[in-house]
Amino acid sequence: MPISSKLPNVGTTIFTVMSKLASDCGAINLSQGFPGFDCDPALLDLVTQYMNAGHNQYAPMSGVPILRERIVGKTKFIHGIDLDSENEVTVVSGATEALYAAVTAVVKLGDEVILFDPAYDSYAPAVELNGGIPVYVPLEMPDFSVNWERVKSAITAKTRLIMVNTPHNPSGYVWTKEDLASLADLIQDKDILVISDEVYEHITFDGRKHLSLLTHSLLRSRTFVCCSFGKTFHVTGWKIGYCLAPPQLTAEFRKVHQFLTFSTATPMQYALAEYLSEPSLYFELPDFYQKKRDLFCEGLKETPFEFTPAQGSFFQMVSYGHLSDESDYDLAVRLTKEIGVASIPISVFFSDKKDHKILRFCFAKNDLDLASALDKLIYFKF
User: Fold this and answer.
1) Which of 13, 18, 108, 337 is buried deepest, with most CB atoms within 10 A?
2) Whether residues 187 and 118 fall in one domain
3) Regions of the chain where pLDDT drops below 70
């Protein structure tokens, strides 16, 4: 029986493709965005403790109360913002679920959703599956900042939602106060909501501060903020995140969440709640990752690639257009096969798949793996 696909233009994600190729070739995997090292053993001990204590059944749909309370405390500590743990915090099975649930909660057939191009690859499918229409606004090259005049021109009477990402994947651009103010000015008199993907909230460099959309009063009233414990505590395989939103948006969000995953792994929630009681564990994260970024960038100086150090996230982009006309996909495959270093071609993040001759490397890896990958890249011949 023939099936009419709801996503006819979607195949296997590039992250799966490149990670499999890296595995098949025995390559150093700097492609998919997951840490190449384990989490704190103390966190693993806490999970075991709560498993042995019998916390192995369904958690409450919105998340175990103590974890929601600790998220409120963390938000207060970092941003000086008071949230209601009962009505504004929802624990979910990964930030990807949070993004999908938020889109599903508010996007209806024919609604337009503004996406900044390039964008993480889950955004557009979530919009399309809900009958929405993605409207792409190109980011400014080479720093991938937002051109707010372009955003203004893209807004129509059908615009329902704007999806933002800071720090940005794949570029690492970190939003400024001016960016928040510009977005607020554009939507203040319109019925437009916002989804903010802030999974790299604790990974910013060179003294930059992550400015959550929660920190702007108008944006806070319109925004679903989606975050990830996986990125923060090196446990991406746990798939645990959370969504912060005002009560009326949270109510609609939970209507969807309860029929997607209903609840998230119980012992891990309790473990994370206890682990969050020590703020230094996430306050030290920028320094931890900046050392890795600096190590990687220092090595890149010995290669023919051109680059600007990332402002945030755990990705570094490099340009090679001055060296070769080879497509970014072909070069990523060749680097993996010939020298054993896997990367991501960033053309996959663009709506039109335009090839800007840029690769993305993940530096959230062991220092020895980074050093080995750099040695290979230094001697690679175009």
Assistant:
1) 18
2) yes
3) none
